[in-house]
Design brief:
Layout (H helix, E strand, L loop, with lengths): L1 E7 L2 E10 L2 E6 L4 E5 L6 E10 L2 E8 L10 H14 L3 E4 L2 H9 L9 E2 L1
Parallel strand pairs: 6-7, 7-8
Antiparallel strand pairs: 1-2, 2-3, 3-4, 4-5, 5-6
Length: 117
C-alpha cells in the first residue's frame, strides 16, 4: 500500500491507495468510503461504510455508474474494503447486497470468519 495526503476544502484527508490489478482504489477515511476513479472517465465507483463499534465495520453499499455496471468495477472497491478489514482484524457486516454476493461467490479463509450477513 502507498500512503499520501490530499488537501480538500481546507482540510487534510488521509488517503490510502491499494492497487487491485490495474485499477487503484483509494480509502477516504474521513468520508468512510473506498473510491475508484474509472480509467478513461471522471466517474467514480465507491463502497460506503461505517463503524458499528470501534472493531466492527458495516459495509453499507456499493455504487457504480450505470454505464460501468456488470463490468467488474465494483469488485475492486469491495476487495479493497475486505483487505482493510482483514489487515485491521475488523468484523465486517455485509449490509450491501453486492458485498453479500461477492463474499458468497468468492469465499476466502482470510475474511470468512470476519463476515456477518
Amino acid at each position: 500500500m502507498i500512503s499520501s495526503k490530499a488537501v480538500n476544502v481546507g482540510k487534510t484527508i488521509q488517503r490510502t491507495y491499494a492497487s487491485t490489478t490495474s485499477m487503484k482504489v483509494f480509502h477516504d477515511k474521513d468520508a468512510g468510503k473506498f473510491c475508484l476513479t474509472i480509467p478513461g472517465s471522471s466517474k467514480e465507483a465507491f463502497l460506503n461504510y461505517g463503524f458499528i463499534n470501534p472493531t466492527f465495520l458495516d459495509l453499507k453499499y456499493v455504487e457504480t455508474p450505470t454505464e460501468f455496471r456488470g463490468k467488474g468495477v465494483a469488485k475492486h472497491v469491495v476487495e479493497a474494503a475486505l483487505k482493510y478489514g482483514v489487515a485491521n482484524n475488523y468484523m465486517m457486516k455485509a449490509t450491501c447486497p453486492y458485498v453479500k454476493k461477492y463474499v458468497t461467490e468468492n469465499p476466502s479463509e482470510e475474511y470468512n470468519h470476519l463476515i456477518t450477513m
